[in-house]
Amino acid sequence: MVKAAQAALNAPAMKPTRGLAVVTCMDARVDPWRILRAGPGEIHVIRNAGGIITDDVIRSVFISQRELGTHKVIVLMHTDCAMEGADEAAITTLAHDELGSEPGFLLGSFEDLTSELELGVKTLRTHALITGTVTGAIYDVGSDSVRTVAI
């Protein structure tokens, strides 16, 4: 019984203790736990290609807030992102040529990192299902630094 009680004490909480949900890119260079100096159980991390705000991201943030108590959201994009300037038409053609099928969905490429970050933050701030504080920041993969973006 003592071992079970100790294991329960050492297990991270299901509800993130910082009350923070982080939306970021799936890029392997982006380690949101290290960047934000967070440990297990402290933050929720929602990832996709580009860290863009999609319907599924909104769904995940909504669940994070309503079911698991987060009340802050940070959209954390990064420099040198493969989705910035990606040619959706070329990638669709490549998929068709190599696989015989097209994606059937937008890839979510964007032309300007800061503009896409601003759009994402504004989308979350104005969405009827999202509450709390929404901020944005850019992680610089070259200098390993983060700068907040006033939006």
Compact description:
By secondary structure, the protein is α/β, with parallel strands linked by helices. It has helices at 2-10, 32-35, 55-68, 88-99, 113-126, and strands spanning 20-25, 43-48, 72-78, 133-140, 145-149.
Write the layout of secondary structure elements.
Blueprint: H1 2-10, E1 20-25, H2 32-35, E2 43-48, H3 55-68, E3 72-78, H4 88-99, H5 113-126, E4 133-140, E5 145-149
Parallel strand pairs: 1-2, 1-3, 3-4
Antiparallel strand pairs: 4-5
Mean pLDDT: 92
Total strand count, please?
5
Report strand order across the widest sheet: 2-1-3-4-5
Give the DSSP E fraction (strand runs of 2 or more residues): 15-25%
Q: How many domain units?
A: 1
SS class: alpha/beta
Question: How many DSSP helices?
Answer: 5
What percentage of residues falls in helices of 4 or more residues? Answer: 25-40%
- End-to-end distance: 51 Å
In CATH, the architecture is 3-Layer(aba) Sandwich
Shape: globular
Structure, explained:
Helices cover 35% and strands 21% of the residues. By secondary structure, it is α/β, with parallel strands linked by helices. The N and C termini lie far apart (51 Å). It has helices at 2-10, 32-35, 55-68, 88-99, 113-126; strands spanning 20-25, 43-48, 72-78, 133-140, 145-149. The protein contains 5 helices and 5 strands. The protein has a single domain (2-149), classed as Carbonic anhydrase (Beta-carbonic Anhydrase, Chain A, 3-Layer(aba) Sandwich), CATH 3.40.1050.
